[in-house]
Amino acid sequence: MSDTKANEKNETPINAAGEAASATSRVPLLQASADEVLLKYTRCVHCQSRLHFSYLTDFSRNLTQETARCPECQNQAHQVMHRLQ
């Protein structure tokens, strides 16, 4: 058996975080259209009304906090921190 085949068998896939991925931790890729992704991000999961977004920016730490709330059912849909460049 050649060295290249032995190395191919011993190689471990690397995930997005730079860690070795095991066979059980692999997640299948999902495919969706841009419209489906946009609707999922901008609509409430409970009542399907449009979310209202607000932003709070901290320029000293280069961070922006995005908060999405539903005006109909008063649900806080998500809160995300974005790093500014």
List the helices and strands and how they pair.
Blueprint (H helix, E strand, L loop, with lengths): L2 H8 L23 H9 L9 E7 L4 E7 L6 E8 L2
Antiparallel strand pairs: 1-2, 2-3
Question: What this model shows, in words?
Answer:
The protein is an alpha+beta fold. The protein has helices at 3-10, 34-42; strands spanning 52-58, 63-69, 76-83. The protein has one domain (3-83). The chain has 2 helices and 3 strands, in the order H-H-E-E-E. A 3-stranded antiparallel β-sheet has the order 1-2-3, with no helix packed on it. Strand 2 (63-69) and strand 3 (76-83) form a beta hairpin. Mean pLDDT is 77; it is low at 1-13.
Quick structural summary:
The protein is an alpha+beta fold.
**Shape category:** flat
Strand neighbour order, sheet with most strands: 1-2-3
Task: Provide a count of the helices.
Answer: 2
Q: How far do the termini sit from each other?
A: 50 Å
Structural class: alpha+beta
Beta fraction of the residues?
25-35%
Instruction: Please indicate the count of domains.
Output: 1
Q: How many strand elements?
A: 3
Average pLDDT confidence is 77
Unreliable sequence segments: 1-13
